[in-house]
Design goal:
The protein is built from seven helices and nine strands, in the order E-H-E-E-E-H-E-H-E-H-E-H-E-E-H-H. The protein is an alpha/beta fold and about 230 residues long. The protein has helices at about 20-25, 65-75, 100-105, 125-130, 150-160, 210-225, 230, and strands spanning about 1-5, 30-35, 50, 60, 85-95, 110-115, 135-140, 195, 195-200. Helix 3 crosses helix 5. It is elongated and about 70 Å long. A hairpin with a 2-residue loop joins strand 8 and strand 9. It binds S-adenosylmethionine (SAM).
Length: about 230
């Protein structure tokens, strides 16, 4: 899978060189590149922002550097008709990212994350991007960050770990929170008693049916208490 990220703070993405995603890059399963938007400017100050038409607080990202960045990064995709690239604008005004979104995007060959700063990006950039690929505006939650980098990193990690070969033990993906619409059950490791706190006896019983039932009951109860909205979906 190929993933590109465009940002004025490309160094943020060094986090993806670590751990399992770093290994996935080293083995070639994941081809990731962060691009500095300022490389697509032509003035002395490498300007990427300007005042908004109609007034209002703050600055907006100018369209020209974005256009050049997309032309460059998506030039290899031009002849591909089978699987168009997906261009994801990180935005608090977008659809909310869920595990189902991660599964959907993990099936695609090429993702491009556009990370806004300031008050966001000139809307024409979104329209232009739609001529180059499938556009999605995606939020990681109902709050506002200073920029899209942290949001993009969160999404890239959630997506890439679903790509076959990225996680050694693929079975661990099956029983996770959100995989079946419920939160994960509580888990315990050795020792069986720690500081007077005991592991639930059923987990030591060796009775697999009883363990499965206990875990499912815990999932339902935890979801009911913490995220009742998931039970309505
Ligand atoms: N003025 C924008 C609004 O009200 O929708 C917020 C701009 S925010 C300060 C700057 C950038 O951070 C956004 O363009 C977006 O790329 C990113 N961002 C902020 N919150 C986000 C969120 N919850 N999910 C994804 N990206 C977010």
């Amino acid at each position: 899978m190929r993933i590109d990220a465009i940002s004025i703070f490309a160094d943020y993405f060094q986090a993806l060189d670590l751990s399992l995603l770093g290994k996935a890059q080293a083995s070639g399963i994941l081809d990731f590149k962060a691009h500095d938007l300022r490389d697509y400017t032509h003035d002395k100050h490498k300007t990427v922002d300007d005042t908004p038409y109609g007034g209002g607080a703050g600055m907006l990202m100018k369209p020209e550097p974005w256009g050049e960045a997309f032309d460059d990064i998506l030039s290899d995709d031009l002849n591909q008709t089978d699987d168009r690239p997906v261009i994801i604008f990180t935005s608090p005004a977008g659809e909310v990212f869920k595990q189902a979104t991660a599964h959907e995007l993990a099936q695609r060959k090429h993702l491009v994350f556009a990370c806004g700063r300031y008050e966001g990006i000139d809307q024409r950039v979104v329209e232009y991007a739609a001529t180059k690929g499938e556009v999605r505006l995606i939020s990681i939650g109902d709050y506002v960050l200073n920029g899209g980098e942290v949001a993009a990193i969160a999404m890239i990690e959630a997506i890439a770990r679903l790509v076959p070969g990225v996680i050694g033990n693929a079975e661990s993906l099956i029983e996770e929170s959100h995989s079946d619409g419920l939160l994960e059950y509580p888990s315990y490791t050795k020792p069986s008693v720690w500081r007077g706190l005991e592991v639930p006896p059923v987990l030591l019983s060796g009775n697999h049916a009883a363990i499965a039932k206990w875990r499912h009951d815990q999932q339902v109860e935890r979801t009911r208490q913490v995220r009742p909205d998931l039970l309505d979906e």
